[in-house]
Amino acid sequence: xxxxxxxxxxxxxxxxxxxxxxxxLADYSAVRGCMVIKPYGYAIWENMRDQLDKMFKDTGHENxxxxxxxPKSLFEAEEKNAEGFAKECAVVTHYRLKxxxxxxxxxxxxxxxxxxxxxxxxPTSEAIIWNTYKGWIQSYRxxxxxxxxWANVVRWEMRTRLFLRTAEFLWQEGHTxxxxxxxxxxxxxxxxxxxxTFAEEFMAMPVIKGxxxxxxxFAGAEDTYCIEALMQDGKALQAGTSHFLGQNFAxxxxxxxxxxxxxxxxxxxxxxxxxxxxxxxxxxxxxxxQGLVLPPKLAPIQVVIVPIFKGAExxxxxxxxxxxxxxxxxxxxxxxxxxxxxxxRPGWKFAEYEMKGVPVRIAIGARDIASNVVExxxxxxxxxxxxxxxxxxxxxxxxxxxxxxxxxxxAKGFRDEHIxxxxxxxxxxxxxxxxxGFIAAHWDGTPETxxxxxxxxxxxxxxxxxxxxxxxxxxxxTGNKSSQRVLFARAY
Length: 492
Description:
Layout: H1 12-22, E1 26-28, E2 35-37, H2 39-58, E3 62-63, E4 69-71, H3 72-75, H4 79-85, E5 90-94, E6 97-99, E7 107-109, E8 114-121, H5 126-136, E9 145-154, E10 168-178, H6 181-201, E11 208-211, E12 223-230, E13 236-246, H7 248-252, E14 256-258, E15 264-266, E16 268-275, H8 277-286, E17 303-308, H9 311-331, E18 336-338, H10 346-355, E19 360-365, H11 366-371, E20 373-378, E21 384-388, H12 392-417, E22 419-421, H13 425-435, E23 438-442, H14 447-457, E24 460-465, E25 470-474, E26 481-489
Parallel strand pairs: 3-9, 17-18, 17-19, 22-23
Antiparallel strand pairs: 1-2, 4-8, 5-8, 6-7, 9-10, 10-16, 11-12, 11-24, 12-13, 13-16, 14-15, 19-20, 20-21, 23-26, 24-26, 25-26
């Protein structure tokens, strides 16, 4: 095992931090609670963003951009939304600094430059967007309005963790307006399915689709749909949410439309989003004690080629061969890097790319060229094989697809083994503390019971699965009647 990385067994939290920092994904910044996303981490985000953006556009959505600042009066217009985010808001009160007359070379806030109205740095954009939609929507002909925004948001977190919880993060937020309730609910479910497809097919991360309980619902929503994933330490992670907002925001911002009979009604709304938190999920779902394990579909580098040589003559021979191989791999749509940097030895490079989670490593030496083969190592299983140089690109395509599905199947196997039924309180506690994972248990449906369970165990209801089967039972805490099990877990 690499000396540089704390093992998962020893300290899961430190293991995660080690991978983020040593894998070159992010760094701490001079701003408390904020992070610097480094090029390698940002390349993963770009791959996620590009794929999701395509999926959004394929379902009829367009991108727009709205201001970073939200006037306080707009923010408080939708009361539940304002309340839900009040404790996390960064607020701009002044617009100018000036030199401190008592302390040369220092700056102070100019008291003369106080804003007439405070501006909230957006924690989410419903308020500014719905205020804008009021001017864009007059009749049913203007609907549906299907808009997405790629942006940054600020939520003033006190306890931060790289990617999982930072004061500023990157995300996308969809905000749509519809003529009917059914259409809006349909949109909410459609976007949940887009997220689930992305998580499973691209992130190789199995998810459970469900609805949040009232306590866990987005402030201002009628229903919050979510995808929940399980990390290797048995904790759950909410990987995406899609909210049916009913007519709440339309009423708060007076957004009405004339229907085909020319009757006025409030529009129906949705909002949905995923964030850079997905990078944290990706790291925790698949990686091991040697470093990152990245699914090929999102890896910034899918194949790295490392030359093994003695002297300039062998190096030139390998360079010529690799040039051709690179062209073939690139033509097949594979992201390939040739690392012929002579500052580091091959063994160091092998460890480095293992740490960075590059799915496939190809080693090539003069003897390999003479035998018309290369050594191919896969990151996920550490298996090595000799592969013919002829038809290498086709074989690498197959190998990448195999790695993608193997990573998914491994994560799914772990997740499925960690969904356990609990029928009484003692079992529930024991499972939480020993086996961990999702616990399927009966709950009496009241917010009070849910809150009490959270207070006693730190476990929350992650979701009520969409495909849940109905069954009579008794609530694990109160013994009151229940018609279905819900999924509890401790979570990030």
